[in-house]
Write a structure and sequence with these properties.
By secondary structure, this protein is α/β, with parallel strands linked by helices. The chain folds into two domains: about 20-190 and about 305-419, Zn peptidases (Aminopeptidase, 3-Layer(aba) Sandwich), CATH 3.40.630; about 190-295, Alpha-Beta Plaits (2-Layer Sandwich). The protein is built from twelve helices and 16 strands. The protein has helices spanning about 20-30, 30-45, 55-65, 110-130, 150-155, 215-230, 270-290, 310-325, 345, 370-375, 380-400, 405-419; strands spanning about 70, 80-85, 90-95, 135-140, 165, 170, 180-185, 185-190, 190-200, 240-245, 255-265, 290-295, 325-330, 335, 350-355, 355-360. Strands 1-2-4-3-5-15 form a six-stranded mixed sheet, with helices on one face. Strands 6-16-7-13 form a four-stranded mixed sheet. It has a four-stranded antiparallel sheet with strand order 10-11-9-12, with helices on one face. Strand 3, helix 4 (about 110-130) and strand 4 (about 135-140) form a beta-alpha-beta unit.
Length: about 425
Amino acid sequence: MAVLGGTEPKTITVPHGKSSAVAVGLAVDQSLNALRELNGAIHSNPELCFKEFQAHENITALLQSCGFTVEKHAFGLETSFVSEYGQGGRLVTICSEYDALEGVGHACGHNLIAVASVASFLGIAAALKQSGVPGRVRILGCPAEEGGGGKIKLIQAGAFKGVDAALMVHASSPLDNMKAAGAAAVGGRSVAIFQGVFTGEAAHAGVVPWNGINALDAASLTYSAISMLRQQIRPTDRINVYIKEGGRMTNIITARSVVEVGVRSLTLAENEKLQERVRNCFKGAAIATGCRIEFEQLMDTYADLHTNGPLCNEFTNIMSEHFDSDFNDDMSEPHISGGGSDFGNVSYECPSLHPLFVIPTRPTDNVHGPGFARAAGEPGAFDAAIQAAKGIAILALRVLQDDDLAQRMQEAFNAGMAK
């Protein structure tokens, strides 16, 4: 297990009178060694959803070493945590992710999300301390983004009640409709994963096959029906399916089969409609073969991502002004990710922003592939994460201190939820 050495000084000092942006930069730069060590520890020890025990310990240890009070195992989740700094005013939550993918490690770069979230929190807290202005920042450990719906469980536990804005960043390879440094105008699909379990009747396949009810036939019919359904779905929809169980022996009529399906749509409402059409494929196959069908939801449905326009524009301006970094902020043509995230559900709770920042990759290094896992551990990826983290920290401070921005972001959120 990779464990942090704990060599970072206990306190972060920022001279009084510095601007928020300068205060953020100084605070983060003072912590670079510890942040780099944290990044390496998480990247070299990938842990699956709800089992991010070492990442949880490493992140909370670093926060405690900097003088922050940390609640471990927060909101009823063993690998969640929360720490908060400041008094009064508005509350901004920085979301931290740190789970990995089975077989390919940190091929979604969640080590970079973790280190960026900590860097942002340290920068915001230091700036609040030196300025003395009202406002609170919270870092929230969000386990199990990769299929576990950790943020949905946190929402259900009340973790986002009273939050004025939720912010995080995510690594990406260069993609279409994305500027050199990344994209702030980002949309994510709604994702649902469920399975259908067919129950038939076993019989000897060579002696009395007519006494059997073939659950594999039902699975095969379902697969074919879904394949045909794809001809009549929207270009932005995706249906991915595989037969999870289909029998064990050729001389036994299969009595049980399991088909797992992933459904992706641009919005939560469209996803729910498409799920029903997919379920009808299962039901038709059950009728045709005489099998019984039962459905099992394998995870809470991930909602689509609502990027907050004012936050998007403000972040893009910050990255251009302070870091000479070019991010796409055209809300009329957002970068629509083929994937989905439970941060989409957060964006239904409060004004939210989830920019993608580009890390150095090879042309073949795709997210959720081994090449991207390698790239996520490189120094250039760490540097890109730190820069994005500083931008998010400056944005958070503006949300806390700028009443006009806070009003505009809330009005945009209300308008989006009213649609």
